[in-house]
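#dry-run=false #mode=assembly
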Amino acid sequence: MELTDITLKEASRKLASKGISARELVAAFLNRVKQVDKSVHAFLSVYENEALACADEADGRILDGTSFSLTGIPYAVKDCILVKGAKATAGSKILENYIAPYDATVIKKLKDQTPVMIGKTNMDEFAMGSSTENSAFGPTKNPYDLDRVPGGSSGGSAAAVAAGEAIFALGSDTGGSVRQPAAFCGVVGLKPTYGRVSRHGLMAMGSSLDQIGVFSKTVEDCAIVFGQIAGTDERDSTSLPQPVPDYVNLLKEDLKGIKVGMPKEYFGDGMDKEVRKVIEDSIKVFERLGAIIEEVSLPHSKYALSVYYVIMPVEVSANLSRYDGIRYGLSLPGQTLEEVYYNTRSEGLGSETKRRIMIGAYASSAGYYDAYYKKAIQVRRLIRQDFVEAFKKVDIMVTPTSPNRPWKFGEKSKDPLLMYLEDIFTVGLNVAGVPGISVPSGVLEDGLPVGLQIIAPHFAEERLFASGHAFEKALDLKIKPKL
Amino acid sequence: MKYEPIIGLEVHVQLKTKSKMFCSSKNAESDIPNVNICEVCTAQPGTLPVINREAVRKSIMVGLALDCQIAEFAKFDRKNYFYPDLPKGYQISQFDYPINGKGTLTITVNNNERAIGITRAHLEEDAGKLVHPEGKNYSLVDYNRTGVPLLEIVSEPDIRGSEEARVYLQELQNIMRYLGVSDADMEKGHLRCDANISMRKQGETKLPPYKVEVKNMNSFKAVAAAIEFEIKRQAEILDEGKTPPQETRGWVDDNGATVSMRSKEESMDYRYFPEPDLPVLHFEKTWIDEIRRELPELPNARKERFIKEYNLPEKDARTLVSYKALSDYFEAVVSEFDEWLAAEHIKFDAEDHAKHLKLASNWVLGQFSSLLNQKSINPGDSKVTPENFAELIKLIATGKVSQLAAKDVFAKMFETGEDPSNLLESMGLAQVSDEGLILDAVKKVILENPKGVEDAKANPKALGFLVGQVMKELKGKGNPQIINELLKKELLS
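#status=ok
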């Protein structure tokens, strides 16, 4: 085993017992980045000197006895999350040289725990995409097959953890952007309840859907990190003041008496046969652990994707207006003000971004607002209600994270609709606001990983960790990309 | 053809709060651009708005003062448009659920009471300011004002002329000042006004099929002038049998005219949608009641109190309260006056006391106001302290100075801030109330004016001539009451 295969929990233990120094640990990861990132391209920027200086500080803390659970742990951050003094491009040319002037709340909270940031990770432009092919700075490759996409939009963060370039990483999930790349890259990926984690410092895509999530190698590692970033924030009025439990203490090894729902709408046609097999086997693992499997129904599921592709672009169209070439970022000259806007945004924004801005502007314009946006908001309530009703019967639900295996570059990028369909199992959760986690649940014959999505009621992330941890332990899947 | 103007006003009031509407940057003006700004109000990526509770409270205060229906819940919306002074590319405003619903503002125009309906009053954020350096091919943006809370008060189309519009605006300004929610200074842009103007034939009741929105009016005078201009312009078009086009026009002060800015076809689609970054506001009745209880005295209540407490005529009271600072000043004078009386153990009966308060009101509304106007200063900025003002009233009330002489004293007080008793001495204007001295003068005048005496005996109204002569003898400083009394007595004897 290489040092960069280490879990957060093991690394913490080794650091605390002085079996290894933070400098050694961080240097090993930086070295790994040098070795593999030319082919993976998980990172948009790497902060070697800063990371080493930070590691030295961490070693000082460990010596002083003033260390925390995350002290000295190397991690990566999706490029749409602001880290003061570091570039924050969000995968867009329009922010190519933008330096963040402040720390996102999650970064501030993490910094209190003194982990070491290695760098910022690649993503689809402004988190719009399911493959990272929409990054203005070139795609990230799937560490399990460099010809295939890592998923998206947080593909860089997922690949970085999978490839051993970081112990954990932050991503953002608006319609599946943490869970789907986690599934494609064989790592754990969490999307919290809407309102559980502060969005302050996360570049907004779909404001009513966005949440910052965590990538890690194990469910337990995920619980450790999540405990540090969850909680309300006075700078984000949509973050709710729910108490944050000690997630690690609530982990379980068995699932006796736990009721697990299988939403029938998620197990219909159109799924990769091999993926279906892996998921069915996973559900058997749940049964073995003592869980009671039940079929449930989320009757409005079929509308989730449509609702999502109305609400999200409407919010996008307003959220991206600030990239206008006036105060920061790319600014191209013009004879008139209108030309400045036109030139800057034509050149600075990619085609998927423009497409969504146009869809959103259309769906919210006079005469169409009622038919699209207003209707979508109404159906959204029904979808949310589906989940609330289902959770009266079961404790958690399980579904595949994605109906498909990672595809080859270019395979779907020509047809946006095909790409949108990739979100089919993940968007419902964002629309309803409930949390979900993708846990590696097996591999296909070609060695590509498959993810199982576990869903819990609002603010019940502990159920995701407890069941995910038990499942992971029982499955004991040992996978690692060959790089 | 006779037409009736149909006017509705949209008034933006900058609320006085410590911080801006959605961030902790200072809500303050500065000569240095871009100092009261932060990552939120300059729309750095990833920033989120947080509602300023004080701004919401002040909005509700205004709503209560205008008899508005306060919403049970209210929400914010995004109003989308691109402009360099609007960093986010959308303004956070309120579309369909404003904080304040329907209300009324009653104004008095030419002694007629008119109830002007309020459609709504909603909260939003201000934009920044563009600066165009002369001779340069670029513009600059100052974001100090960006995100300052604005309350937009929209009236019903109930206003029927420029004078009504002016009074309505002044009354709104006055209420903002009574509430202490805004300085409401139009010239400084704390209070901004757009007008929707249209005309219909006299006697018709339906709203005209068009309206013209007029912007860029930066003073009360400009509002009145722009309305007058539009009334004339639109009447001419209507006289030709045409309908004036629906459009937005701008008032150009230098030309004294409105010019077309954009037509109906060019009107913007702001694509309002609910602001997802902010929660819906629910107002608890107890909180609204608490704000209502803490509401300061409003002009109407103060007017009634002045009438009751000081026995002022309605007209005096109305004029005083229509200018908050002046009525504050008047009250300070009254209270200082009573202190003078107490300190010097002077007692007046109720009727006389009321007469002296009326005297104070005359002085405040008369010479004091006209001197303030001449200098264009506020009552609080004048050199005359309420204490000195009250002393002068006391000196008049106790016959130490004549009203006539007091005018010169007051002018000097206004100029230098000196106290009236000293000025009386140094200017030699103290009134002569010494009966011996006055009697000497009376006797002298009777001796020297046999014709005047004869006339006065025949007709008591002709006494004035002799009074004047005695006054002249006493160099204008004689106490007129005593002169009168002594003259009558001498003539009878």
